[in-house]
Structures are given as structure tokens and as C-alpha cells.
Design a protein that fits this description.
The complex is a heterodimer of chains A (261) and B (214). By secondary structure, chain A is α+β, with helices and mostly antiparallel strands. Chain A has two domains: 111 residues, Ubiquitin-like (UB roll), CATH 3.10.20.30; 138 residues, Orthogonal Bundle (Fumarate Reductase Iron-sulfur Protein, Chain B, domain 2). Chain A has eight helices and eight strands, in the order E-E-H-E-E-E-E-E-H-H-H-H-H-H-H-E. Chain A has a five-stranded mixed beta sheet with strand order 2-1-5-3-4. The longest helix of chain A is centred in the last third of the chain and has 16 residues. With 214 residues, chain B is mainly α. In chain B, helix 8 runs antiparallel to helix 9. The longest helix of chain B is centred in the middle third of the chain and has 32 residues. Classes of the chains: A alpha+beta (261), B mainly alpha (214). At the A-B interface, helix 6, helix 7, helix 8 and strand 8 of A face strand 1, helix 1, helix 4 and helix 8 of B. The complex binds protoporphyrin IX containing FE and FE2/S2 (inorganic) cluster (FES). Protoporphyrin IX containing FE binds next to helix 1, helix 4, helix 6 and helix 8 of chain B.
Amino acid sequence: MSDQLLNLTLHVWRQDGPTDNGHFETYQAKDITTHMSFLEMLDVINEDLIEDGKTPIAFDHDCREGICGACGMVINGRPHGPQRLTTTCQLHMRQFSDGDELWIEPWRASGFPIVRDLCVDRSAFDRIIQAGGYVSVNTGAAREANEIPVGKLDADLAMDAAACIGCGACVAACPNASAVLFTSAKIGQLAMLPHGQPERQDRVRKMVAQMDAEGFGSCTNHEECEAACPKGISVNWIGKMNRELIAAMATAKDEVEVRGK
Amino acid sequence: MQRALTLTDTAIGKKVVMALSGAILVGFVIGHFLGNLNLYVGEASMNGYADKLHHMPVLLWGTRVLLLIAVTLHIVSAFMLWQRNQRARPVPYKMRKDIATTYAARTMYWSGPIILLFVVYHLFQFTFVPESGNVFANVVHAFSHPAVAAIYIVANLALGFHLFHGVFSAFQSLGANHPKYNQARHWLALLITIVVAGGNISFPIAVLTGVVHL
Ligand code: HEM
Ligand code: FES
């Protein structure tokens, strides 16, 4: 790993609020060490902007350790940048070379309206979870943890799905801005566990209906989502969700209501 | 007004319709290709086969109605999903890099309509206004024009691409996927593509090169 300093040209999407048209602004990133994370590099740019009395670039971040899912931007056409299985906050400048030109854009989807610059509103994901991505548990004394046996493999698979941090890279990468990878991981995770069984058929129907209501596109099985996912969520969950939905529609004893047109 | 959610309300449900109608069409193109192999056996065999079909009106018309329903459902759901997808990303990316997708997957909305146009042309040529009652002669005549042969070759390339992604994709749309068999889905798609599209393309080539002649 070299200690070389990088000079980069950045074209960053600047948008002054949800209704602004937005445009690309070009910045020179000078003397960037390869040990910096991508967000730290943007911090440096922002320091300069603030010193010049300009508005810093708005971008989301929180944990900066790859677990919260807050960060995310499309860097040269790839959500979270060029490194596989890596969030933007965990992407390091050593992935780039001196003289690179980078186009930095927000997630683009009507389900994720832009708040400002690179920040998008991902509350559509919250509403999908609110529609059914939970298990109902009576409060009271905590139950014995091992009371309900869970097979090791099922637990592992549920954990694989639960690795989703809800960052939205799947939507950003999908040619149709579809949210099926996220939604299917959340449905699949609970479908693997005994705790998820009582509400299983309701959950898949309500979450899928909410996903559609949010205006996300439909899956055409390009599998770009899996390739972009920083947590490596598999498209197999999408197949499982489809199976769950078909089964629920065919066998559920009750109906799920939606608002008619 | 509240009403019950139905499968076809959802985008996933519309994709299920596409997959099931697509499966019917895949079945048809396989059968159609196998029937066309009679071309290699000879004039009597080809015309005998056509004759046999025309003497089974229930089967013939049953199949035609089924195909018409399948094509309609396939296209209507394709159109509805296409509209949804257009709305889902109103502002495109300045730069986009695909990693996982295939050429066939990216061109489904091209290969599909090409197939549709071709089917209309094909039906006019051989079904609605055939040149004569001799099916074998009609085919050989048609394909001895290089331009006509070229249309058939291009259309079947489009069919091949459509089949390659379509067969692979339909399993996933129906939830019939499993890590154990996902590789097999790819191979099945490739096999059907090569046999059907490759086989169909061989017919005009066989006529042009004189392998099949009157
Ligand atoms: C008649 C004109 C046709 C049109 C306009 C058309 C259009 C489409 C479109 C737009 C898709 C969706 C692609 C995607 O989601 O990525 C699709 C999928 C598919 N098509 Fe067609 N298609 C046509 C004919 C055919 C034919 C003749 C066959 C059979 C050989 C076929 C088999 C399939 C299959 C199996 C799928 C996959 C469905 C799925 O992913 O669930 N299509 N078609
Ligand atoms: S800031 Fe939390 S995952 Fe990147």
C-alpha cells in the first residue's frame, strides 16, 4: 500500500432541496492520503468549502463502520463505489489512483426522494418494515431464551438475511429501482424463524403491497442488487419472497385490505 | 374504498403472469421447432405433418386460443411493469456500471417486441395468406430470398436472447429457485436457447445453401 498522495477531480451532485433541479459541481480533491475513507475525503472537501464560505456537500453517515446503513452514494456508476461488499464509509481512497475523475451521485429512485445533494429520504423502507417487518410479542416477564428451539442452519440463514442494513444500494443499483432485495431479506429473515410464523402470511402480503405503494420498480432478475449489496444479501431471498407471496395468496384464510383505486 | 389485495395487484403477481404465460410460449416454440424438423425429412413428411394438424381442429384451435391468451397476458403485464419501472427512476444516472446483468436481460424489452413484429409477419406469410397449399414449397420458396431468410435469422436471434433470460428468470419469478439448482437454471436456459433458436436459424440457412430444396 503506497503512501502516495492523490489528486482527484470530483463531479458531485448538488441539489438545494427536494424541489431544486440540481446539477453537478466540480471540485479538486488535493493531497488525499490513501488511508482516508471516502467520507473522510469528502470531509476534507467540505472543510475547504466551509472556509470559503460555501455550503458543504450534504451526505448521510452515522456509524462510519459499515453497520448502520446510513451512508451511500453512487460513485462512478456503482453504489458504494468500486469495492465489493463495502459501504461508502468503509471504502478507502487506496481503491483509487492519482488523477482519477469521479462522478458522485445520490441514489436515484422515486421511492427515495432527494433531500439535499447526496442525501435521500429512505423512510419508504421504514414504512415497508412498519407494514409487517416485525413479530408481535406480548410484553411481560422475559421468556426463557431457549424455550423455542431454532435449528442451527435456519438460524444461520435468518442471520444472513438479517445482515441487511437497509442502506438502499439494491434500489440504487437496480435498473428498475426495485426494492425487492431489501424487502425479501426482511421477509425471509422472519420466515426462517419460529417466531415469525404466526404473522407470516400477513407479513409478506402487507410488505409487498407497501413496497409497490412506495413506487419502487419491479424485478427483472438482472441481479445487480446482489452485486451492489455491501452485505452480500443473496437474490435467493427474492425467489423465496415470491414463493411466500404466492403461497400466502393461495392459502391464507383471510384477506389483506388495500385501498382501491 | 377498501378491497382485498389480489396477487395480480402486485408487481410480483404480474411477473408471475409473465412467467406462466411465458412458459406456455416456451412450450409452443419448442413444439413448433420439433414440428419444423420435418423440413429435413422431406416434402411428403412436412406436408403430411401440416395436414395432420389441420385434421385435428380441436387441438389446433385449442392451441391457437391458448397461445392468443398467453401472448395477450404476457404483453399486457410486460407493458404494466414497464410503465411502473419507467416511473420508478425518473432521473437517470449520469454514470451507471452494470456488474451482474447479461446482454439478454438488458434487451428483453427489445427482443420481445421484435418477436411480436416477427410473429405477425410470419403468420401473414405462412398462415393467413400462404402462397399455396404446399407447405414445404412455401417454406423453400420464402427462404430462397436472402432478405426473407435474413428476417428469420434476426428474429430467431432475438428469440434466442429472449429465451435465454426468460427461461432463467421465470423460475425466480415463480419462486422456484434454490441455491442447489440455480446453476441448472442457467444450463436449461442455454440448452433451450441453443436448440430452439439455433434449430430455427438452421432452416433458412439449409434452404439458402441448398441442403433443403424442392
Ligand atoms: C410476443 C412478443 C413478446 C413480448 C413483447 C415479450 C416481452 C417480454 C418482456 C418485456 C419480458 C420481461 C423481461 C424482464 O422482466 O426482464 C418477458 C419475459 C419473458 N418472456 Fe417474453 N415477450 C414476447 C414473447 C415471448 C415468447 C414468444 C416467449 C417464449 C418463447 C417468451 C417468454 C418469456 C419468458 C419465459 C419470460 C420470463 C418471465 C419472467 O421473468 O418471469 N416471451 N417477455
Ligand atoms: S456510515 Fe454507517 S454504514 Fe456507512
